[in-house]
Structures are given as structure tokens and as C-alpha cells.
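Project outcomes to date are best conveyed with an example. Our students and postdoctoral researchers have been running inverse folding experiments weekly, and each run begins with a structure described purely in C-alpha cells. The record below, which covers 200 residues, was selected by the lab manager from last quarter's runs and is presented without edits.
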């Protein structure tokens, strides 16, 4: 059983990504392959779930352990297959999904593909009270994602904080950070480069 693959993201398609590790390209089906766009051509750690059937062996890829845990929990529900579980994770906010299950909000759940009223009730019946750990983990993960400066060099961190103070939003800054990380500059130089990139 695979836990994760650490390799280079070599291809991104509407249905799957390809991660090359040890000269082998692994095709990983993901809920939203384009969520891995920022990792294209770079080394990435992708958590995997191996799904075995009589006629096929499929690898599903996830950005986090929490996403995979939620996927596996959804698979345990009668009437939910891998395709439906992946669609639910891909199109929904995890904390909102868990909140809907805990609140027995079947109307929210029926907005997902292939989830009717009966399946929504089954999800609530099978999973209510069993997702508190993953709820906490997702909250932590989201806070970490909101901290744009995590893992950056001191000079780049200062530049990002200065740009935030100037009024640039997180969405704009997220787009340019990967390009800035490739450079080794002073804070002032980072700011000038960021401004050039954002005004292109």
C-alpha cells in the first residue's frame, strides 16, 4: 500500500496528474488536477490512495493527509464510490462539508454530483460524530495556507509584509511568490520585482 509519492509533477490534465519518481511516472487521479498547477515541473509530495477492483488498479492523489482521510471516510458510505467521493472533496469546502454532516443538513449535501436525498441521509448516518479530528486538522491547514510568509527567507518575508501593507491582497501575492522565491534579492529588490510582475 502506498502512502505518498515524492517526485516531479510532469503532466497536468483535466482528469489526472503525472508524478515521476524513480524514473516511473505515476498517473494520479485527483479531484482538481489544476490545484497542482503551481507544482508543475517541481518536486511535490502527493498523498495517495490505492483503489483495487477486479478489473482495475487506480491511484488517487491528494494534497494533504486530511483530504485523503475524508475521501476514505466517504468511500465507507453505502452508495458512494471513488468518483463521487472525489467530486465531493473537489467541489466543496471541507469544513463546510463536515459542518453540514454534523448539522444533518442534507440539502447542502445534495448539491454535490451523484448525491441524492437518500445518499445524503446515508452520509449523515454513517459519518456524523466521526470527523471531528479531520475538522480540526483542516482548520489548522487553512490557517497555515493563509500565512503567506511561512517558509520564506527573511528578505522575501519583509517584502511580502510590506506589499500587504501597501494594500495588495493575498490572491495577488500568491501568484507572484513562486517567481520571487527563485531569486536571491534584498527586500527592496523583491518589492520592485513583485510590482513589475503584478502590473504586467
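After processing, the design step wrote out the following sequence:
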Amino acid at each position: 500500500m502506498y502512502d505518498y509519492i515524492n517526485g516531479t509533477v510532469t503532466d497536468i490534465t483535466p482528469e489526472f496528474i503525472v508524478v515521476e519518481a524513480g524514473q516511473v511516472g505515476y498517473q494520479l487521479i485527483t479531484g482538481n488536477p489544476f490545484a497542482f498547477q503551481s507544482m508543475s515541473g517541481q518536486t511535490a509530495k502527493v498523498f495517495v490512495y490505492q483503489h483495487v477492483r477486479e478489473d482495475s488498479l487506480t491511484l488517487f492523489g491528494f494534497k494533504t493527509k486530511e483530504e485523503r482521510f475524508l475521501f476514505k471516510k466517504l468511500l465507507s458510505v453505502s452508495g458512494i464510490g471513488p468518483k463521487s467521493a472525489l467530486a465531493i472533496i473537489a467541489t466543496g469546502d471541507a469544513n463546510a462539508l463536515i459542518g453540514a454532516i454534523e448539522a444533518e443538513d442534507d440539502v447542502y449535501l445534495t448539491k454535490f454530483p451523484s448525491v441524492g436525498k437518500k445518499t445524503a441521509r446515508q452520509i449523515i448516518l454513517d459519518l456524523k460524530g466521526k470527523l471531528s479530528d479531520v475538522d480540526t486538522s483542516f482548520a489548522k491547514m487553512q490557517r497555515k495556507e493563509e500565512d503567506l510568509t511561512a517558509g520564506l527567507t527573511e528578505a522575501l518575508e519583509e517584502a511580502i509584509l510590506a506589499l500587504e501593507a501597501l494594500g495588495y491582497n493575498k490572491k495577488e501575492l500568491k501568484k507572484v511568490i513562486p517567481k520571487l522565491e527563485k531569486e536571491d534579492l534584498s527586500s527592496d529588490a523583491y518589492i520592485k520585482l513583485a510590482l513589475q510582475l503584478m502590473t504586467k
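The chain has three domains: 4-62, 65-138, 154-199. The two ends are 46 Å apart (CA to CA). The training component of this project remains on track.
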